[in-house]
Amino acid sequence: MAFVVGIAGTAKNTGKTTTTSAMMKELECRKIDYALTSIGYDGEELDNVTGLPKPRLKVESGVLVAVAEKCLSVSSAWVEIAERTGILTPLGEIIIGRVKDSGLLIIAGPNKGQDLQKICARLMKYNARLILVDGALNRLTPMVVADGLILATGASRHQNINVLVKETSGIEQIFRIPAYTGVLQTQPDVFQNHVQLIKKVNQSIEIRNYDYTSLLTDKLMNDILLNIKYGYNTLWIPGVLGVSALRRIVDSSYINEMQIILNDPTKLLITGEVLEFLTLLTSGYEKKIDLYFQNPLQLAFLTINPFFPRYRAGKGLYEPSYVNVDELLIRMREFLSVPVLDVMKDGVTEIINWIEDNSKKND
User: Fold this and answer.
1) What are φ and ψ of residue 9, in 5° steps?
2) Under a CB-based contact definition with an 8 Å cutoff, are residues 241 and 195 in contact?
3) What pLDDT, in 10s, does the model give residues 212-238?
4) Distance from CA of residue 71 to its chain's centroid?
5) Does residue 152 sit in helix, strand or coil?
6) CA-to-CA distance for 90 and 249, rounded, in angstroms?
7) What is the DSSP string of 107-151?
8) Which among 34, 14, 52 has a CA at the least distance from the CA of 318?
9) Looking at residue 169, what DSSP letter applies?
């Protein structure tokens, strides 16, 4: 089995590409083979909003890649196509190839979880034992196939260090919500691709199915809350759980004990309302409303970046600015339990050691 590592940023310019590039260099120094793909588009020479230079991914000869075909014509790296996957994206079909001449590569890959899973399986046929997946917090959903996530954040997300630390700590808390391991795991009719309300009746279970797979509408919530009154105490949501829906559950006078099961952490994080969720979850726990993930995702490391683009109205342009990196690093390490790194100072040795240790366990 391949070991899949996701690298995602909480916003543009938070150091994700810098982290990925440093990891690639260290892997090459240790002569560890890896494959590279993405769940979106990255690699532009200039930021398309600020106009400031952005780091790009330089790939060396021999690296296995899975990218959209149109990326090849605008990259300086020469990739020899090994296979066409039939998976289509706005930038063309995803191809699997191997870098023959090193250079800069534009990375754009599959944007659906099931397609990323197929790509990882295809890469394994070429003996890929380590796969790096480039991504972002707002398009994190396909990343649930990863064995671990490295998250890059920084001043581009919030220039106020206090706010940034509080939000990042909240993100970590969401990743630490436990996996569901209850008796429903053995029930064949549970955890389908639609919302389900479940209750136990004697030695069997009773399921109420809803034809909704994404957002919980007000109409749907009305029916859910009504049926909770009649003994249904487990709610399975395959799609996104929004703040307003969770608030209605927590505020309901019908509920004093319940479990909510989501597919994975992205179903909370995609809304971007981290702190609001944590406040509601705390209130919910007091009413014995517990939250679980069917497919948890491990947050393995956090990297920080003090850079942010400051807009100068008088000049009509952006210029590079920085928060105090030492203060940012100290505060993050104080409030988070996951290892926090400044890649420019600390390097990525700790990350690659973690990859090596865990890759061996997957073999």
Assistant:
1) -110, 150
2) no
3) 666 788 889 999 998 888 889 999 999
4) 23
5) strand
6) 39
7) EE---SHHHHHHHHHHHHTTT--EEEEEEEGGG-GGGGG-SEEEE
8) 52
9) H
Q: Output the pLDDT for position 256.
A: 79
For residue 262, give the 3-state DSSP assignment. Answer: strand
Q: CA–CA separation, 15 vs 343, rounded Å? A: 9
Residue 3 has pLDDT above 80, yes or no: yes
Beta strand 148-154 with 64-68 is unpaired
Contact by Cβ (8 Å): 190, 207: yes
Residue 50 pLDDT class (50, 70, 90 cuts): very low
pLDDT at 195 over 60: yes
Handedness of CA 164, 167, 170, 171 (dihedral sign): negative
Contact assessment for residue 320 and residue 286, using Cβ atoms and an 8 Å cutoff: no
Residue closest to 175 by CA, chosen among 199, 150, 194, 153:
150
pLDDT at 52: 46
Q: Regarding beta strands 78-89 and 130-136, do their DSSP bridges make them parallel or antiparallel, or are they unpaired?
A: unpaired
Of residues 143 and 172, more confidently modeled:
172
Pairing of strands 204-209, 57-59: unpaired
Strand pairing of 258-262 and 234-237? parallel
Q: What is the pTM of this model?
A: 0.90
- What's the pLDDT tens digit per position in 288-337? 999 999 999 999 999 999 999 888 877 778 898 999 999 999 999 999 99
Secondary element (H or E) of residue 99: strand 92-101
Rounded Cα distance between 59 and 229, Å, is 58
Q: Residue 209: is its pLDDT beyond 70?
A: yes
Q: What pLDDT is attached to residue 350?
A: 97
DSSP letters for 170-235:
HHHHHHTSPBP-SGGGG-TTSS-SS-EEEEEETTEEEEEE-S-SS---HHHHHHHHHHHTTT--EE
